[in-house]
Amino acid sequence: AQMQELERTTADQDGRRVAKLSTYYTQLWLQMATLAGEEVDDSLANALLDAIRDAPDSPTVFLDACGQPVEKVTPERADDRPYADYWSRVARANNLLTRAVRSGEIDLRELKTAYLDTFRTRASRRNRDSTVDHLRDLAVLMGNGALDALAADLTRAAEAPT
After folding, report:
1. d(CA 132, CA 92)
2. What's the distance, Cα to Cα, between the start and end of the chain in Å?
3. In whole angstroms, what is the distance from residue 36 CA to residue 44 CA?
4. How many CB atoms lie under 10 A from the CB of residue 81?
5. How many C-beta atoms lie closer than 10 Å to residue 86's C-beta?
6. Phi and psi dihedrals of 104, rounded to 5?
7. pLDDT value of residue 126
8. 51: which residues sit within 8 A by CB, 6+ positions away?
């Protein structure tokens, strides 16, 4: 399904084929494919995640002749202002989470810091709840109580007065 989405968003740029990624769906696909035991080539996953890390509001990858992502398109960003929408801002934390799910090595302190940094920027309760619910779902799917504890910590921190 992810490859079909890449093909649908393909365009030509300077004689090369490029595809625009959906940050959310790409990360979700990589997480669920990993948990389902599907083989996702590390170079493919890394190309997708690197593109999201470097340009969460418009991640784009170059495709090879077979339609496989081979490298990220280097973004041109004029400034360091925060991204306008929550999903672009939380992409960094979600990227860390996706890499952790793929590797099986979860650094809870790093994840907590990344999510709290995002929660401190114009994040609505609905945004935060969506993120925490996803962490709880992953905790159940992975049988990982630490992720569930992280979700509880994030909920408490988000509700605490500043």
Report:
1. 15
2. 42
3. 17
4. 7
5. 19
6. 80, 5
7. 92
8. 21, 59, 60, 61, 69, 72, 73
Q: Both tokens of residue 28?
A: 């979700």
Which single residue is written with the structure tokens 């504890």?
A: 149
Neighbouring residues of 115: CB distance < 8 A, sequence distance ≥ 6: 90, 93, 131, 150, 154
| 146-159 pLDDT tens trace | 999 999 999 998 77
Cβ(64)–Cβ(49) below 8 Å: no
* Residue 42: HSE in the Cβ half-sphere, 13 Å Cα cutoff: 4
The DSSP line for the chain is -HHHHHHHTEEEETTEEEEE--HHHHHHHHHHHHHTT----HHHHHHHHHHHHH-TTS-EEEE-TTS-EEEEPPP-----PPPSSHHHHTHHHHHHHHHHHHHS---HHHHHHHHHHHHTTT--HHHHHHHHHHHHHHHHHHT-HHHHHHHHHHHHHHHS--
- Confidence class for position 116, pLDDT limits 50, 70, 90: very high
